[in-house]
Amino acid sequence: MTSVDALPTPFELTPETTALVIIDMQRDFLLPGGFGESLGNDVSLLQKAIGPLRDLLEAARAAGILVVHTREGHLPDLSDCPPAKLQRGNPSHRIGDPGAFGRILIRGEYGHDIVDELAPVEGEIVIDKPGKGAFYATELQDVLTAAGVTRLLVTGVTTEVCVHTTVREANDRGYECLVVSDCVGSYFPEFQRVGLDMISAQGGIFGWVADSAAVVPALALASTPA
Ligand code: TIU
């Protein structure tokens, strides 16, 4: 066990009870032509998280901790997509429409999959989720329980939508969450800042926040035999 220099207090890192959760680092959110851009967003703002997240993923793999990737998306017939989600907003393309990388946010399409830099390797868990939160209508809690995981390093996109929703869901289920600040991304710089502040405020109301420069060496230290 070692501790990460985090806000609002140090976060204890115990490799055997910790998982790295990487939320929705999918081409549809990160590359031009996908769902994120169809909503009017500048996708380059999310791409900043890829480099630090790749380093964190490598550190997690070296430390042997559980790695969980999630993907937001729907069945080809959209039967798992509530009409409210389908109709929300005024996008140039809706979920299920043809986009630059296949049908937008549809499972099995190229755009629905994870960017090459962060592609899962054998043995890593991939959770397909129809909602914003990674616990809603998925097997995530069962997977974590079976692995004895109670502490999550949370990363991915977007900070204020799927990351926040997942952290709040996890918090209510009793998990301790550390959000890695440079490994999450938002289309809105002010949401990135405030979204992170909201997590560690009030004595850590939803969890902890630290950057990868604090987490990566702690992972290496925590997994080194004494
Ligand atoms: N639009 C937006 O900020 N996010 C999403 O739609 N999904 C995720 O955050 N993954």
Description:
35% of the residues lie in helices and 21% in strands. The protein has 9 helices and 10 strands. Helix 4 runs parallel beside helix 9. The mean pLDDT is 96. Bound molecules: tricarbonodiimidic diamide. The site of tricarbonodiimidic diamide has 9 residues, from helix 7.
Net shape: globular
**Termini gap:** 10 Å
Adjacency order of strands in the biggest sheet: 7-4-3-8-9-10
Radius of gyration: 17 Å
Main sheet overview: 6 strands, parallel
Strand tally: 10
User: So how many helices?
Assistant: 9
List the SSEs and their pairings.
Layout: E1 2-4, E2 11-13, E3 18-23, H1 27-30, H2 35-38, H3 44-47, H4 50-63, E4 66-72, H5 83-87, E5 98-99, E6 102-103, E7 125-129, H6 140-147, E8 151-157, H7 159-172, E9 176-185, H8 189-204, E10 208-210, H9 212-222
Parallel strand pairs: 3-4, 3-8, 4-7, 8-9, 9-10
Antiparallel strand pairs: 1-2, 5-6
Helix pairs in contact: 4-9
The structure holds tricarbonodiimidic diamide (TIU).
Tricarbonodiimidic diamide binds next to α7.
Produce a short descriptive summary.
This protein has 226 residues and is of the alpha/beta class. It is built from nine helices and ten strands. It has a six-stranded parallel beta sheet, sandwiched between helices.
